[in-house]
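Hi R.,

As promised on Friday, here is the backbone we talked about, encoded as structure tokens. Could you run it through your design pipeline when you get a chance and send me back a sequence?
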């Protein structure tokens, strides 16, 4: 085509309220009922074709684990090999497609998700990942729509970034896709991340092998359907749920492996990096390794903090989605003069919090994702109950008879280095250390040095000097830093997300910085008046 089409200006998808009487509420409730009313089969998708291997695992509701929502087919070595081959085949055409053709696919995907697919993907996220309607809406619908729209916009900006040309010479950059395929490995906790990790490289012209988390496979399978309906050609993204270690071993052994797009725990990313490093000499090119990993996100209160704002930030920041957000506040530092009032406010709010089936819209929290998470979180709480110097101020209960339910739990730890103050628990547990108000400077150091992570953090203060001191002292303690706000809820296009230290490569999901990792630019110089003689003027006789 002739013309340079402009990508529509992106905007953040408005969050629907699901309040009583709204049309979206009725539609979502109907979809949840329908999805839970019959058992689905979730196939692999390789080269655009559904693949049923017959080896299945049960997909259950975390809040009612006897209820099997679906049987998910599992990849074995042959299917992984087929997915790699399909990605390689699709690459020839897809990597050569014009940007406007690729952009159209993802812009359409955004609109499909904003409309017909919205209740389906939200409903599947509520059922399979135990999110409330609001948590599903801000993740599975709004954030993923934003990823699609903003990433296309950022890709346009990258492509527009071109070098200088001089008279007689035309210079330009060709932002080539990587020569090979990208391996996307996605976590359970955000459907939007499930959708973003394979599609961000695809927007840049790459093809992908996608291994979703077993516990998010229901919502993720609908994203595959949505992308096919949006016009994504067969083989551009290949969906291979399966045993993670075996799938990864196969993928990382392939010569065409060109990069990892990962979100999940620190240990898994480090293991993948080591495996890639061990295979390095067998790859056609140096792989791009992009990973967003664990966190031990903090809230630090200065004596000047507003107690109502602080208590609200602590409750929302720590307990929404059962504390299973990588950004969830899990350690807090509150000065002794503020603490009694803040503690009473927190306990008052938590007394009103309802935990249960997300299909009942009165609940603020659902269940944690699976047995493994339940046992791990309960283990931390049980140990805290026995530990000297630790008080359970709220919650502490856990019940797995129907679903993997854990009460929102607040611990007060005298020892600022106690394990719940420094290790990632990934559940509804907030540990508070009360510090002497006069020891503000020491507390800043403590926050910075207590954990190996550096994902998110928040400072609550009304004193401007304190805000500036915290911003300076904690410059490397968080990749996403909040002032007088909870450390969760980053919005695409507004707060590019990611952390450093043990929290990841900080390539900022949903931003230009991330997309650029999926391109390998070629600089082209066209000389319109090339020289015709080898000699230079300085060589002439004086
Ligand atoms: P996880 O590491 O258990 O799993 C992530 C993915 O890796 C899944 O697809 C899983 O199947 C796969 N996997 C697991 N073991 C593997 C192995 N040995 N080899 C290859 N792949 C393997 O993480 P999770 O429980 O799904 O998610 C929770 C973690 O993710 C937390 O640590 C959280 O902080 C982190 N997280 C980080 C961010 C961020 O942006 N920094 C966002 C969301 C989640």
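Update: got your reply. Pasting your designed sequence below so it's all in one thread:
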């Amino acid at each position: 085509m002739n013309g340079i089409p402009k990508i529509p200006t992106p905007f953040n998808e408005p969050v629907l309220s699901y309040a009583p009487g709204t049309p979206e509420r009725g539609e979502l409730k109907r979809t949840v009922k329908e999805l839970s009313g019959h058992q689905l089969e979730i196939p692999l998708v390789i080269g655009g074709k559904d693949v049923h291997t017959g080896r299945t695992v049960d997909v259950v509701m975390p809040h009612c684990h006897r209820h099997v929502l679906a049987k998910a087919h599992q990849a074995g070595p042959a299917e992984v090999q087929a997915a790699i081959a399909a990605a390689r085949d699709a690459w020839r055409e897809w990597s050569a497609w014009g940007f406007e053709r690729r952009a159209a696919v993802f812009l359409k995907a955004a609109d499909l998700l904003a409309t017909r697919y919205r209740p389906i993907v939200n409903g599947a996220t509520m059922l399979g990942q135990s999110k409330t309607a609001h948590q599903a809406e801000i993740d599975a619908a709004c954030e993923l729509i934003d990823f699609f729209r903003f990433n296309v916009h950022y890709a346009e900006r990258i492509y527009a970034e071109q070098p200088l040309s001089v008279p007689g010479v035309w210079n330009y950059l060709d932002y080539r896709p990587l020569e090979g395929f990208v391996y996307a490995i996605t976590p359970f906790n955000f459907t939007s991340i499930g959708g973003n990790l394979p599609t961000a490289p695809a927007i840049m012209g790459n093809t992908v092998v996608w291994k979703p988390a077993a516990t998010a496979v229901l919502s993720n399978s609908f994203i595959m359907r949505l992308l096919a309906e949006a016009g994504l050609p067969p083989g551009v993204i290949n969906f291979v749920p399966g045993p993670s270690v075996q799938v990864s071993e196969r993928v990382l052994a392939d010569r065409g492996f060109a990069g990892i797009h990962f979100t999940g725990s620190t240990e898994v990313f480090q293991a993948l990096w080591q495996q890639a490093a061990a295979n390095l000499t067998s790859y056609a090119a140096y792989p791009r390794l992009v990973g967003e990993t664990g966190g031990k996100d903090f809230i630090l209160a200065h004596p000047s903090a507003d107690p109502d704002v602080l208590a609200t930030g602590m409750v929302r920041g720590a307990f929404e989605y059962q504390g299973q957000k990588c950004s969830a506040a899990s350690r807090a530092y509150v000065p002794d003069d503020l603490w009694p009032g803040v503690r009473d406010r927190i306990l008052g709010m938590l007394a009103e919090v309802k935990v249960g089936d997300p299909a009942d819209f009165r609940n603020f929290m659902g269940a944690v994702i699976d047995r493994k998470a339940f046992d791990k979180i309960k283990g931390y709480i049980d140990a805290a109950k026995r530990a000297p110097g630790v008080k359970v101020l709220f919650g502490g209960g856990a019940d797995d008879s129907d679903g993997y339910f854990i009460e929102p739990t607040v611990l007060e730890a005298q020892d600022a280095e106690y394990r719940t103050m420094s290790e990632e628990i990934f559940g509804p547990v907030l540990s508070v250390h009360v510090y002497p108000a006069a020891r503000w400077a020491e507390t800043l150091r403590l926050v910075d040095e207590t954990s190996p992570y550096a994902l998110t953090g928040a400072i609550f203060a009304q004193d401007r000097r304190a805000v500036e001191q915290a911003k300076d002292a904690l410059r490397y303690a968080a990749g996403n830093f909040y002032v007088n706000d909870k450390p969760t809820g980053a919005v695409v296009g507004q707060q590019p997300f990611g952390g450093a230290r043990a929290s990841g490569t900080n390539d900022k999901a949903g931003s230009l910085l991330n997309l650029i990792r999926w391109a390998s630019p070629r600089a082209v110089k066209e000389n319109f008046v090339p020289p015709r003689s080898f000699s230079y003027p300085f060589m002439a006789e004086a």
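One thing I noticed while checking it: The first helix runs from residue 23 to 37.

Thanks again,
M.
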